[in-house]
Amino acid sequence: MIGSNLQSKANNGAAHASQPLRFESELSLKRLMPRLDAVWDASGADESLRTEFNLRLEEYWYALFEILHELYGSRYDFFYHLEQILTTAATAWINRPESLREVDRHRINEPDWFASEKVVGGALYVDLFSENLGRLRETIGYFKELGLTYLHLMPLFAVRPGDNDGGYAISNYRSVDPRLGTIDDLKLLADELRAAGITLVLDFVFNHTSDDHQWAKLAQSGDREFQQYYYIFPDREVPDQYEQTLREIFPTVRRGNFTWHDGMQQWVWTTFNSFQWDLNYGNPAVFRAMLEEMFFIADTGVDMLRLDAVAFIWKRMGTSCENLPEAHRMIQAYNLLARIATPGLLFKSEAIVHPDDVVKYVSPEECQISYNPTLMALLWESLATRQTRLLTRSLSHRHKLPDGTAWVNYLRCHDDIGWTFDDADAAAIGINAFDHRKFLNDFYTGQFEGSFARGVPFQENVETGDMRIAGTLASLAGLELGIEHDSEEEKELGIRRMLLLQSITLSIGGIPLIYLGEEWGMLNDYEFVKDPAKAGDTRWVHRPKMQWEFLDELDDNIESGSGSIRTRIYRSLQRMIAVRKSQPAFAGQAMKLISTGNPHIVVFARMNAGHHVIVAANFSEEIQTIDGNYLRTAGLGRFFEDVLTDRTYGTSDALQLDPYQYVWLRRV
Ligand code: GLC
Ligand code: GLC
């Protein structure tokens, strides 16, 4: 049906005279349809599956063709790859389990399902949390108790021996690390999570492979076809030219971005660790090969792919090789292919870059959701300074995203904290960004006088003075120091700071994402240095092993000791999650800052479908007050309640916020 339709369009050449590319795209599709028919015929797939696919193909084909033509049209083998890409997509749809096709059909009709207030995420390393995938299935009840509906499992595919960058050096995308289980275990887990109402998020680590991936091994053996999968150079000439404009991401691992390979006697582009080889997406064979891996991962039952290191996937001489327009076009092409072949699948952007660049990845046509690194960094900034000016300045013009997308709001993840706020935002309120970053690094490594934080430097670059911070939520917020000083007061403040930060990520608009361990206030784990595969990477300090004994403490009534601290953190977070889910005002992303003139607090309104909640949070250890007039005019009327504590208030009085207190207010 699509064939004849296209034929009549293609014959109508005059109408296309002004749009030559559109004409070429339709002609190409017409030529490719018989190849596609062969795929369908060979698979014996029934007519209705074919029709569904073809309708989507017809809808998205031109957009896809346009991008692929732009990226690869000048290649002599363009048409060959176009055919491969198309048959790969059809094969993915045919092979997709029917249960996932059901999910696809629902999501086509409800594309922004993730904007619901009911969506709350968690992230974990399988080995550190539950040893393996089999045991992880047994912990689904735990996720439900906490209130999670979205689970990001850190990379669990086969990795190289020794250091594997926490799973980000993948040697085979089609097999699970045998220590964790098998692909069948993964599929079973995905099924059970889905039955429990929990969506599964996995990484798509597509910027690089491990140096022992099959493609890299073939390259090492001298196979020229596979050497073109990577950036490999015989001498320093070209690498040195690139280096002129590149940043260094892991300067303590190795200077520069290239690694000498003894076997090949050549230089290899390695943005991250020396064993992570950057893929050459200038080569359409790489685009197509990774597409196959993407579909394979999707078909295990994944709802969202976290696009790892998106900023780096396209390189061009003379640029920073980050956030290039071609990188966006490429992700858009992958997104179109997902719309065609695995339409329930969504993309999450991992671009931990300048805020102006972060948002460029976020659109229904590219990545529907994205980490919010600016909010993350500025919440920590506010905690250190007890001032919310930079936070509100940034939120005032950076929070809004396009319709049909959402932020993923988090405090800690498996990576470091980098101070990626905008220098101009800082300058606008009289802050010198360079000095301020230095202050924040001093503060969070505990060197600043009076600091409550116990962070560890990550990737300190002596030349540029650049540094990032590692540490768990609890250790950075002061709990570790409080325990060390055995000070009830410091412990109390530490707990309050942790919950204060959670109260913002759970309410500000978007998907809150908890790094598991936060719910217990897990402290830094300094033991990682004993493992040679981890010792060189301080991020392991905030990747502690889950201690299931904590669960026993939940039923423990003892009111003192660290047991009750843990219980309190867990119960408070659990309750905050439950309350979030009960407030329709928290769906979507509409957020309005309310200015009160008090630099220590942040106040904002959330509204959705006639529902209205005002969030207020005090970032200082001093009592702060908000004039009732601000709250009344912001929509709270004369009487209102804090939905977290059920306490009621009147706007005739000033609202008093205790040290680090947060409230979620609703008119009564
Ligand atoms: C991403 C990951 C990080 C990893 C890097 C290289 O930034 O989050 O953990 O080191 O990519 O894969
Ligand atoms: C990515 C992020 C960077 C992070 C690194 C891993 O490159 O952009 O901020 O530090 O991965 O640590």
From TrEMBL:
Record bears the keyword Protein biosynthesis: no
SMART domains given in the database record: Aamy
Domain of life, per lineage: Bacteria
GO biological process, one term: carbohydrate metabolic process
E.C. designation(s): 2.4.1.4
Residue intervals of the Glycosyl hydrolase family 13 catalytic domain: 123-555
GO MF annotation terms: amylosucrase activity
InterPro entries: Amylosucrase, GH, GH13_cat_dom, Glyco_hydro_b, O16G_dom_2
CDD domains membership: AmyAc_Amylosucrase
Keywords of the record: Glycosyltransferase, Transferase
This protein's name: Amylosucrase
Organism field: Stieleria marina
Taxonomic lineage of the native organism: Bacteria, Pseudomonadati, Planctomycetota, Planctomycetia, Pirellulales
